[in-house]
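Worked example 3. Consider a protein that binds pyridoxal-5'-phosphate.
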Amino acid sequence: MDRDLSIDASVLLPLGSASHQQCESCGAEWPELHAAPQCTTCGGLLVIRHAPPVNARGAQMSGAELQHAFAQHCCARPQGHASGVWRFEQVVMPTAGDAIVSWPEGNTALVHRNAIAQYVGVDSVWCKHEGMNPTGSFKDRGMTVGTTQAVRVGATAVACASTGNTSASLAAYAAQAGLPALVFVPAGQVALGKLTQTLAYGARTLLVRGDFDDCLRLVQESAQELGIYLLNSINPWRLEGQKTIVFELLQQLGWDAPEWIVLPAGNLGNTAAFGKALREAHALGLINRVPRIASVQAAGAAPFAHSFAGGFRTRTRVQADTLATAIRIGDPASHNRAVQAITFSNGVVLSVTDEDIVAAKRVIDAAGVGCEPASAASVAGARALVQRGVINSGDRVVAILTGHVLKDPGILVRMHQDAAFADAPANTPIEIDAKVGAVAQVLREHPSGFSSTTLS
Ligand SMILES: *Cc1c(COP(=O)(O)O)cnc(C)c1O
Ligand SMILES: [Zn+2]
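Given these inputs, the predicted complex is written out as C-alpha cells:
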C-alpha cells in the first residue's frame, strides 16, 4: 500500500539525545521531569519523544536486536521487566530506573474463538484481552508509567477524571506508591464494578453532578489550583504505557503485523497511543508493514466518527449518550493526535449502535471470554467493516477487548435477569427447591443443550 511515511523521520530524536516532552501545538520542548500536564507556554498537549535505543557498541539497535532485547526481558526482573509494559522500557521510559511502580501489568492473552470469528466474518480474528490487567482494564498500562512519573517528579498527590476504569486504576497504583488519590466521576454514570473498586483501593471519590466532560474540566482546574499531579489520559506518560498494547501484540504475532487493529474509542487516548506505537515500531525497524487502525465509537458518542466522515476538516463535540459508559465522551481530549494516528495508519473511524454493542457482547460473553460493553464495540466494528467490504476475508484482525466482563454487572442483570433487551433470549436464573426432582423438572422445561439421555 502506498502511504506517506515521511513524518517518520521526525518520530525519533537523534541518537544519544535525552528523552523530552514536546508541545504538539507550539513545538516548545520541556525536560523529561517537567511536571505540568500541558505546555506551560500555550496550553497545548505534550508528547514524549525518545532517541532510538543503542546497543553495546553505542550504535542504534536494529529492529532484530531490539526484538531480541524485548524477548530477553520477559523473565529478567520480577518487579520490572516481567511486566508487559516495562519489558518495553527502552521505548516507553528509558530512564525509569528504580522508580518503577508496577503491579506488574500487561502480558495479556491474544485469544481466538471460532464463535467470535464467525460473528465478525473472517477467520483470523484475535481478541487481545486487556480486561486481564490487574484492575481489569488497559488503563493499568498507562497508569504504571504515569504513577512512576508522579514518583519521579516528587508529586504529593494524584488526580484524574474518569468514566470509571481510570479511577479504579489510579486508585490501585496510588495505593501502591503511597500517594493520596482524588478522582472525579460523573454521578450516576459509572458502572458498579469500577466505582466499588475505586472505593476499595481507597481513593477520595467525588461524584460530580455533570458528565465526563465536566469532570475533565474540573480536574484540570483543581489540579492546577491545588498542586496535584494530573494523571488523565492527556498526561503524555500514560500514552507511553498504552503504546505497549501494540508492541506486545506485535511481539505475540512474531512481529508479523496484522492487517487491522480494531479498538473502541472514547477520549481517543488509546487511538493516539496506538498511532504513536505504530510510527515508532516502523521507524525502529520492528515491523515493515503498518497495520490499519479502526477506531470504533458508540453511535450516541461519535464525534470522532463524524469528524472522520467529513475528512477531519472539523472537530465535532456532542452530548454523549450510550450504555457503553467507558466511551460515553462527547469532546475527546486527544482528538488531534488521534487524527494523526488514523491518517498515518490509513485507518478508519466508524460508529456502531448500542444494539450492535449488546449483540457483539452476547457473542463474546457466550464464548466464555466476556468483556464490558465498550469493549464489544471493537468486535461489532470489525463485523461492520467486514460487511462493508473494508476488511477483506483474508485479513488478519486484532480486536482489543478493553475491559473485564465484571466491570459492569448492572448491564448483565439487565440482559439476563430483567430481560431488558429484546435482541436475544435472556439466560435467567431459576430458583428451585433443594430437591433433585426440581432440578430434573427445570432441565425438562428448559432443555437448552442437556440431552434427553441426561434426563432419562
Ligand atoms: C478508557 C476506555 C476506553 C476508551 O479509551 P480512550 O482512550 O478513552 O479512547 C474503552 N474501553 C474501556 C473499557 C475503557 O476503560
Ligand atoms: Zn505549546
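Take a moment to read the result before moving on. Confidence is low (pLDDT under 50) at residues 1-9. Residues 139-235 form a domain with the Rossmann fold fold (CATH 3.40.50.1100).
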